[in-house]
Amino acid sequence: MVKTTYETVSIAIPRKELLDAAKKFLMHSGSHKDLVLVDNIYSPKFGSSDLLLVNKAKTNLIVGRLNDREEGENFIISSISYYFWLMEFITISEVFLNGKCGLDMYLFSHDFSAASRYLMDNLTGKLKVYPIKYNTLQVEGLNEPAIYFQHITPKDHAQEKPVKKERQEEKVILTEEKESSAALKISAQELREFDRLKEFYLD
User: Fold this and answer.
1) Phi/psi of residue 195, nearest 5 degrees
2) Is beta strand 129-139 parallel, antiparallel or unpaired with respect to 5-7?
3) Cα 166 vs. chain centroid, distance in angstroms?
4) Which of 70-74, 177-181, 188-192, 195-199 has the highest mean pLDDT?
5) Same domain for 48 and 102?
6) What is the rounded CA–CA span in Å between residue 66 and residue 14?
């Protein structure tokens, strides 16, 4: 049976419920099948994770941070700073625990600006930090809104990057100018032939 859905205001859902939904999303997405929730790790300078999960083998940490208040760019910068701090924390711990531990961070926000997404695109290849957009939907027949999570990928906002297009247009213009310049270059022999024909037909 097909049901109608429409987007609602994200702030209508309490933060606790958003975090609970994000936790379920992380525990049931991809290869994250054996995760357990643990206490958050706090940094005096860079804040804390909102969700911290570890696999049973304790070889990988999954960090979730939820943005329901900050502006997008501030949220991204503070989260990446926390990511680097936590990486240092893990590296120091590895010396004492005699083992390696990976780190993945998921950033949940109701919106990511073009600037923050561009930044994330350039960092995703170097860091394991993934932007996740959440939407709140009202489903026909349900009293409470549903939460929908979406991985943000470069193809989702390729149209928001006009730089490459401008450069391509610039190349076309430069090529056309170059061709025009080349067309205006006349050799001495061509000039003599032009003068000969002009005298023959116009005089």
Assistant:
1) -65, -40
2) antiparallel
3) 22
4) 70-74
5) yes
6) 12
- Calpha distance 108→150 (Å, rounded): 9
- Following DSSP, what letter does each residue of 161-203 receive, concatenated? -HHHHHHHHHHHHHHHHHHHHHHH---HHHHHHHHHHHHHHH-
Q: Which tokens sit at 152?
A: 């943000």
Q: What is the number of structural domains in the chain? A: 2
Query: Which CA distances in Å does 105 have to 20, 86, 124, 200?
Result: 16, 10, 11, 81
136 compared with 42, residue with greater pLDDT? 42
**Do residue 52 and residue 140 come from a single domain?**
yes
β-pair type (60-67, 102-109): parallel
Chain CA centroid to CA 110, Å? 13
Residues in the chain: 203
Kindly state whether residues 123 and 183 are assigned to the same domain: no
Name, in order, each residue with C-beta under 8 angstroms of 32's C-beta and a sequence gap of 6 or more: 26, 53, 55, 62
Q: Which residues have a Cβ under 8 Å from the Cβ of 120 and sit 6 or more positions away?
A: 76, 112, 129, 131, 152
* H or E stretch covering 35: strand 35-37
The neighbouring-strand residues paired with 146 are 137
